[in-house]
Task: inverse folding
């Protein structure tokens, strides 16, 4: 009994089709896993970017509020001679510019500016300056 060539060809074609389908099924599974992994990674990145945008938005609002408070200080005259004198007295006692600003109701930047000007003037005049050996470098890192 000799096998029929058509039967052998049909069996070979069926085997090749089955192997092809199995290979395609494996590639499809791998592609789905990679797609899911990529989507998870992109979702994580999107969430991180959203958080960073929210932080930037809050920082922008803080800067705008600081600018408004500085304009209010200058417009309302709160940074007059008696306020500057009180600020200098607090700085001479060793209080930090941030603490002095909150106790006088001034913006921190304004108090730091007063402290820097005071230190520059006291350095030029040979005056002792702030208690605790305050230096301009200390003020740069205080806020």
Result:
């Amino acid at each position: 009994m000799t096998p029929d060539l058509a039967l052998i060809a049909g069996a070979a074609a069926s085997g090749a089709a089955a192997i092809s389908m199995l290979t395609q099924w494996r590639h499809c599974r791998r592609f789905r896993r990679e797609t899911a992994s990529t989507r998870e990674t992109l979702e994580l990145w999107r969430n991180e970017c959203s958080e960073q945008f929210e932080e930037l938005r809050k920082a922008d609002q803080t800067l705008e509020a600081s600018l408004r408070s500085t304009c209010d200080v200058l417009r309302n005259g709160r940074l007059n001679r008696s306020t500057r004198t009180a600020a200098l007295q607090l700085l001479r006692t060793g209080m930090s510019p941030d603490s002095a600003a909150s106790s006088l109701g001034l913006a921190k930047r304004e108090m730091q500016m007063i402290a820097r000007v005071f230190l520059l003037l006291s350095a030029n005049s040979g005056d002792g300056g702030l208690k605790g050996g305050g230096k301009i470098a200390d003020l740069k890192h205080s806020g």
Notes: The helical segments are 5-76, 81-92, 97-104, 108-125, 136-140. The radius of gyration is 37 Å.
